[in-house]
Amino acid sequence: MRIMGLDVGDKTIGVAISDPLGWTAQSIEVIRRKDNIDQDLSRLGELVKEYSVERFLVGMPKNMNGTIGPQGEKVMEFIEQLKRKIDLPVKIWDERLSTVAAERTLLEADVSRSKRKKVIDKMAAAVILQGYLDSGAK
Questions:
Q1: Would you report the helix, strand and coil content of the chain in percent, each value rounded to 5?
Q2: Whole-model pTM?
């Protein structure tokens, strides 16, 4: 079963996909958000078909104390729109520090600042998805 991991931000959506066995996550794309959410969801729908996705995993940006702040509220609203547009199960996963982990990985790989900026969101999506896969949660 393929799972699509999403790191939803105001300007971009990082997208990662699991392998068919659910062992590894690969980052695949950064969607530049449009003014109209339907365009963002349409692109996700195309990727769902292309990769035969059966479930979404959306990173939830929680505060360090575990509460959901303004960005988390935006992600919840996005999830509601996603559920209405694409009929697939959606799981939510705590994404605290996923961008920090992705940034650290890119720094260790000596990726330039300009290149990091282009891929950080899809790397964060892969970190979120890999954390979920490694946890054994289903």
A1: 45, 25, 25
A2: 0.85
